[in-house]
TrEMBL record:
Protein name (database record): Transmembrane protein
Source species, domain of life: Bacteria
Residues spanning the membrane: 12-34, 118-140, 177-194
Organism whose genome encodes this protein: Luteimonas galliterrae
InterPro entries: DUF6766 (IPR046657)
Keyword Transmembrane helix: yes
Keywords, alphabetical: Membrane, Transmembrane, Transmembrane helix
Amino acid sequence: MNSGFLRSNGLSVVLLIMFAASFCGQLVSGFSVLNDERIERGMAPVSPLQYLGQGQFLSATFENWESEFLQMGLYVLLTVRLRQRGSAESRPMHEEKEKIDPGPPPWPVRAGGWWRRLYAHSLSGALLLLFAAAFVAHWLGSWRQFSEEAVGKGEIPPGAWSYLGEAQFWFESFQNWQSEFLSVLTLVLLSIFLRQDKSPQSKPVAAPHSQTGT
């Protein structure tokens, strides 16, 4: 991997490394926690490969991914119409002409028609599709975990559709959703008054608090 590649892709490379390290940490710690619980209940421990299909792992993983994709998808859509005066996270209060670097536009733009219309909303669409996929994976993983615990107590587990009405599932979702919306709100408001030199998420250091957008 040469220095030119790292300079051009350093942000995504570092974030990918941080994600992989955190994900491995989740796997190792979650595997240990689950097997400790199973041994306490007199159950046989699972193998690392079996752990990937356990409800505990699936639920914990996808409930977090679900909230992240929901946050980003809705934020992309909300910032189309809504403004926050003074925030670096908002579009300017008055419309400005878009600045586009010289070069050929992406092929859907050149194709025009429906291709262009789809491409014009592809970012929010992709994020919301990822949210939907993660939501389903969280639902099924949480249902599997809930069912395993019910069987361990000698109870009859609910069906997958019935589980959508369980408070446990929505508790897992809402506790993550509210934290994501709070973090975005915090960034929107703090960027009015605070700065981070050279960050695209911040206004220039000398910019007045009233300046909106970067």
